[in-house]
Amino acid sequence: MADIRRNDPEILRKAAARTFNLALLVRDYVYVEAEVAACRKKAALFDFSFISVARVWGAGALGDNARLTDRALDGLAEGRIRYALDGAWDC
Question: Which of 9, 20, 21, 78 has a CA that sits 20 to 30 A from residue 89's CA?
Fold first, then answer.
């Protein structure tokens, strides 16, 4: 097993080189394709704090969902999720 010393200058130098740099953060890729490519080639962090959760069930559940969003939810298997925009959004 390798002897890893937390105070080893070489380990600290390498760790510092990998430190997150806010100045290098791309805030807008302009094109979705460019953002997807960056996510697949490197790493991605998504903030989903704006998302609400709704659990509906019963005989009228699909109809109730249709009043909330235009996204088709029929055919969605039980226990699965699907993201949708609130009907109040004008996209």
Answer: 78
